[in-house]
Amino acid sequence: MGISLDCLRDKNLMQLKKLNIALFPVRYNDKYYADALSSGDFTKLAYYSDICVGAIACRLERKEGGSIRVYIMTLGVLAPYTGLGIGTKLLNHVLDFSAKQNISEIYLHVQTNNDEAIAFYKKFGFEITETIENYYTNISPPDCYVLSKLLPVPAAKK
User: Fold this and answer.
1) Residue 117 belongs to a domain with what CATH number?
2) Which residues are catalytic?
3) Bridge partners for 5 per DSSP
4) What order do you get walking across the sheet with 51-62 strand by strand?
5) CB of 93 within 8 A of CB of 58?
6) What digits encode the pLDDT tens for the residues 117-154?
7) Is residue 26 over pLDDT 90?
8) Band of residue 157 on the pLDDT scale cut at 50, 70, 90
9) Which domain holds residue 81?
10) Is residue 157 domain-resident?
């Protein structure tokens, strides 16, 4: 009984949609899914004994100066499967893959009352860098923290 990760493709996009409905209090628009599909290996579905139980969905963003950063749009695991290392495997995949792509920053938004998620990301070296009031509509509290992690970028070869 292992955990496996799979790329997001058109044929399994519905699995991500179903997971998001089960996991999150907000509904995601078509742009979210288009960004997830276009991020390539940065978005992964997690399977536990061939059942889709979690996912990480990312978007690549170009910063001023041309560098790329990764925005984690969502990371979630269905409740019966939490504590099995699935979220850790998903996040580690994105951290490792980002480092291999010479990406220097990963960031995300977390609702200010989501202590479990904040503690999870802090274990991986993310830090709260900003608080945004009224970021979310239709959920309470509406405020979020921005959590960021800077990745060491390998020195340019001489």
Assistant:
1) 3.40.630.30
2) 71, 109
3) 46
4) 3-7, 44-48, 51-62, 68-77, 105-111, 144-150, 127-132
5) no
6) 999 999 999 999 999 999 988 888 999 999 999 998 66
7) no
8) very low
9) 3-150
10) no
Structural domain includes residue 18: yes
129 within some domain: yes
Is residue 62 included in any domain, yes or no? yes
Q: Looking at the 3D structure of the chain, how many domains does it have?
A: 1
Tokens standing for residue 87: 């979220």
Q: Global pTM?
A: 0.92
- pLDDT, one tens digit per residue, over 3-15 is 999 999 999 999 9
Contact by Cβ (8 Å): 13, 33: yes
Instruction: Count CA atoms closer than 13 A to 134's CA, side-chain side.
Output: 0
**Band of residue 72 on the pLDDT scale cut at 50, 70, 90:** very high
Q: What gap in Å lies between CA 36 and CA 110, rounded to an integer? A: 18
